[in-house]
Amino acid sequence: MRRLLLTTAGESHGPGLTAILRGLPAGMPVDVALLERDMRRRMHGHGRGRRMQIEADRVEIRGGVRGGITLGSPLALWIENRDFGAWEGAMGPLAVDERMAEQRRLKAPRPGHADLAGGLKYLRRDLRDVLERASARETAARVAAGAFARMLLSRFGVEIRSGVRSLGPLGADAPTPTWSDLVGVDDESPLRAVDRALEPEMVALVDHMKEEGDTLGGAVTVIAHGVPPGLGSYVHWDEKLDGRLAQAVLSVPAVKAVEIGGALAASRGPGSEAHDPILHEEGAWRRAGNRAGGLEGGVTNGEDVVVTAYKKPISTLRRGLPSVDLDTLEPAVSQYERSDVTALPAAGVIAEAMVALVLADALLEKLGGDSLAELEAHWQATEALRRAWPGARDR
Question: Which CATH number fits domain 5-388: 3.60.150.10, 3.30.365.10, 3.40.50.300, 3.40.640.10?
Answer without folding.
Answer: 3.60.150.10
